[in-house]
Design brief:
Helix content is about 15%, strand content about 30%. It has helices at about 75-85, 115-130, and strands at about 5, 10-15, 20-25, 30-35, 40-45, 95-100, 135-140, 145-150, 155-160, 170, 180-185, 185. The strands form three sheets. A five-stranded mixed sheet has the order 1-3-8-9-10, with no helix packed on it. Strands 2-5-4-6-7 form a five-stranded mixed sheet. Strand 6, helix 2 (about 115-130) and strand 7 form a beta-alpha-beta unit.
């Protein structure tokens, strides 16, 4: 029987087996990694692109290095990539998908939208690491409920504003880096 694991904001999960990893995204973003040969993968759910680092020192004046915090996109990705290394695999062997970054606060387009900033950050940092994105469903309006199946790498998405909607499978793209979208099949201009 398939086990479901819910990933809360700021959490990172990596594993394998008969599992479905689920999360609820508003302006947050999730990055999924799936290894199609070994059938394991992971998901991070971050809240903000980066942490504002202020130099912290201990009582002896020595700089304190904090552990990576999954609430921040750069650190969440770092934690996922560490799991790739721990499992003796290469990131090039994974299917990578990006979701979320919705406008859930109803802000007009002229205001800074944290969801769009999160989505842009995720796509940009993956590109900087030379990690191709095979599918994405980012930005736009409302929340997304994700279900990531570690048996086959499928990701199912339900969108909405508190109304019941059916789940739909997000197809993998054939291009190296698909255009950023506000919904499936819609190019952002």
């Amino acid at each position: 029987m398939t086990q479901r694991i819910f990933v809360n904001l700021g959490e990172v999960y990596f594993g394998q087996g008969d599992l479905q990893i689920e999360t609820l995204l508003g302006s947050c973003v999730a990055i999924t990694l799936w290894h199609p040969v070994r059938h394991f993968g992971g998901l991070c759910h971050f809240v903000l692109p980066e942490r504002r680092h202020s130099l912290r020192v201990d009582a002896d004046g020595v700089q304190v290095h904090e552990a990576p915090d999954g609430r921040y996109g750069d650190e969440a990705l770092s934690r996922l990539l560490e799991q790739v290394r721990v499992h003796g695999t290469r990131i090039a062997d994974y299917t990578v998908k990006v979701f979320g970054g919705g406008n859930v606060l109803g802000l007009p387009p002229t205001k800074l939208r944290i969801g769009q900033a999160n989505a842009d950050f995720a796509l940009d940092i993956l590109q900087q690491h030379h990690i191709p994105v095979t599918a994405q469903d980012v930005a736009g309006e409302g929340y997304r409920y994700l279900r990531f199946d570690l048996n086959n790498g499928d990701v199912w998405v339900r969108r909405g504003h508190g109304v019941s909607h059916d789940m739909e499978k997000v197809p993998a793209a054939t291009a190296c880096r698909p255009q950023r979208t506000a919904g499936l099949g819609k190019e952002r201009t």
